[in-house]
Structure formats: structure tokens, C-alpha cells
Amino acid sequence: MPDKTHGFDTLQIHAGARPDPATGARSTPIYQTTAYVFRDADHAAALFNLQEVGFIYSRLTNPTVAVLQERIATLEGGVGAVCCSSGHAAQIMALFPLMAPGRNVVVSTRLYGGTVTQMTQTIRRFGWSAKFVDFDDLDAIRAAVDDDTRAIFCESIANPGGYITDLDAVSQIARDVGLPLIVDNTTATPYLCRPFEHGATLVVHSTTKYLTGNGTVMGGCVVDSGTFDWAASGKFPSLSDPEPAYHGLKFAETFGPMAFTFHGIAIGLRDLGMTMNPQAAHYTLCGIETLSLRMERHVRNAVKVAKWLEADPRVDYVTYAGLESSKYHDRVARICPRGAGGLFTFAVKGGYDACVRLIDAVEIFSHVANLGDTRSLIIHSASTTHRQLEANQLVAAGAAPEVVRVSIGIEDADDLIADLDQALAKATA
Ligand SMILES: *Cc1c(COP(=O)(O)O)cnc(C)c1O
């Protein structure tokens, strides 16, 4: 049985899993069931009172999903995790216990395009709002926090521009103002970056990406560090005060460091229903076993391709923190010591039109709105994923019209370079 002292490569295979008690199955079975038989009426009552941990109904908990939750929590160094149906669901699930009508979250301008839209538009329906700030401007983050702010939110390695957030500096601000820092660690994965070691409170993931790793299933996860004192702050009544949605239960008092995780299951999944299904958990468990091997190759290939592009006269610039020319290169050793990930953008001479021609000319790269696949992927963010954004938001997010984003896969780097070479020839002819 692995424990937390084991290395990452061991934990990514073993954490949370044990041979199936009924059959001895070594690989975690897909528990394809909606409900679980109670031993007797007392057992059922204890489960519903959260006095005993067990399985009731798969909207709340499922044994296959539970293994994945423990696996991801362990890899991140957290105390608990709640899996959900997608990365975007995870973001709502992370904010939900903290927010209320009139409250706001201070967020980085450098975010996944869908997150920008979620935060600028959709969360307003709940009466929440987001204040966008350049996270390199620490004074601006402090200035944006007001009495109604309930969280600070950023990405560790921000999609799409290869920007690395100074998590140490941002978490210091979060501590000073007594707010939780939520870090979207999707593009880094816990292999490259462990936000809790830099002071983050919660981590969210789109498990759709590198954690599954092969572009097969959607999923998300919220991981809790267990370090935030919800009761002391007085700002989070759903966690600290009697919660009317759970017959007056005080989550912080009852569950201590597990309060956020229990709240996520007992209220978040119960009432919002953004549940991960056991099939998805199975695929993600299979994928996560090779996370470190894949991330090493993603990084090695990304460095090689980025260097080649940087030296090519048809390319204006490359934004990859793994390059010495990057403004963020000196954050790599501190924030993501095993590498700056597999995602970056580059600007093609000839601007928007040349980018569109390049996308149409690639053969190995796939033109898709995804990242973190074994396959190399390419997209012109300005005309697709970031299409909803205004011109200034596009530039702030690192998705200017003259850049294409690549998610470098684990194929032979030389084949990737040859593909880009022939496509650049067509794009800039
Ligand atoms: C894909 C992605 C999301 C959204 O995740 P889904 O699983 O597509 O809902 C959020 N953040 C980042 C950084 C992403 O790459």
C-alpha cells in the first residue's frame, strides 16, 4: 500500500487503489451502478447524517470516482478532492461554497478562453462577478480586493501564452488579505507544478487534458489543501455556520481540514449535480498512471520545437517559458522545476491570414480545440477558442490575432518540426 512518502511515479499508479475487495481485481473496476444497498436502516441513517463515510447514490460518490479523487489529491499533496463532469464544472464547484450574490473573485487576465467567458458573463447569473487584473502587477491584485472579494483565481501555467504565474507572490497577497487562492493547474499538472507548495488553498483541474492524456473523456476535479481556516475568517458562512441546506450542519467544525471536500460532495454534487461518471474516472485512472512519462516527453518535445521555431525567419516570436528568451524563464526553476509544459504560442509573419493558412496546411498536427493530448494539436485561438473576447482581452490573454497555439504531443519531435516546416512554407509563400 503506497503512502505519501513514495515517489510521484509510484503514487501516480497506486495512490487510492487497492485490489477489489469482492473479486481481487487488480485494476480498479468500473462500478457501473447508481445506488448501493444499505446494510440496514441504521446504516442508511448514519450515511445520510455524514456520521459514516460510504456510498449512497452515484451523484454523490462512486467507488471508481473515489479512487481517482484520492489519486489526484495525493499527487497534488492535498487532503481531499471532488471530481466533477468537466473542468468548467470544477471551477463552479470551487467557487460555489465561497461565493454568494454580490460577492466577487479577483482573477488573472491570463486564462483559458472559456474561463474568461465563464467569469465575465455566466457567473453574473448567480449574482457573482469577477475583477480581471494583470497578475504581474501585485499592487493591482491588492487594490482589486475589496470587502466583497471571496477568492483569488489564476492558472499556474496560463493557457495559451506560456505565462507562468508567480504563485509565491500571489499566495502571499491571499494570506495577507485572508482569502483562499484557487489555482487552475490543468496545463502544468502536479508533475510539473504543485501549487500547494507555493501557498495555494485549492487546485482545480480539467482532467480532460493531461491527466487523462489521450483526448478521450471530459472531467474535472477540485482539490483542497486543507490549510484554510474557514471558521476564523468569518467570510464563508456556508462552511463555518450552520448550513441550512444540510439541516444546520457546521462543516468546518465537523470535518476540520476535510470541510471543503465534504461540502463539495454533500452540497455541491448533491444539488448542482455536476458529477463525474465512473467510465470517465476509469479512463482518467488509466491515463494518470503514465502522467510523469508523458509530461517529460511533452516538455522535451516542446523545448525542441520551440527552439526550432524561434530560429526560423518565418516566425516572429515564440512565447514559451522554457526558452531563455522568455520573460518568464526565471520563474520555471521555482514554480515548475520539471519544465514549462507542452503548450505555447508562436507568431507567424503575415499575421492572421498566414495563421489560418498554416492551420490548413499541417498534416501531423490536428486542428482541434483541445490540449494535453498524446497527439500534437494546433489552433488559431483568436478565431476559435478566444473568439468571444474583445481585442484588448485577446492580447491580455496571450491570444493575439497573429499567433497560433500548439499543444506539443509525444510523437517524434523531428516529425513535428518537419510538419511545421512544410506548413510554414505554404503559409508564408
Ligand atoms: C480545458 C480547460 C478548462 C476547461 O475544462 P473542460 O474540461 O473543457 O471543461 C479550464 N482551464 C484550463 C486551463 C483548460 O485548459
Description:
The chain is α/β, with parallel strands linked by helices and about 425 residues long. The protein folds into two domains: about 10-100 and about 180-285, Type I PLP-dependent aspartate aminotransferase-like (Major domain) (Aspartate Aminotransferase, domain 2, 3-Layer(aba) Sandwich); about 290-425, Aspartate Aminotransferase, domain 1, CATH 3.90.1150. The chain is about 40% helix and about 15% strand. The protein is built from 18 helices and 14 strands. The protein has helices spanning about 10-15, 40-50, 65-75, 85-95, 115-120, 140-145, 165-175, 190, 230-235, 235-240, 250-255, 260-270, 280-290, 290-310, 330-335, 350-360, 390-395, 415-425, and strands spanning about 80-85, 105-110, 130-135, 150-155, 155-160, 165, 180-185, 200-205, 220-225, 315-320, 345-350, 365, 375-380, 405. The chain has a seven-stranded mixed β-sheet with strand order 1-9-8-7-4-2-3, with helices on both faces. α8 (about 190) links the parallel β7 and β8. The mean pLDDT is about 95. The structure holds pyridoxal-5'-phosphate. Pyridoxal-5'-phosphate binds near residues 114, 115, 187 and 371.
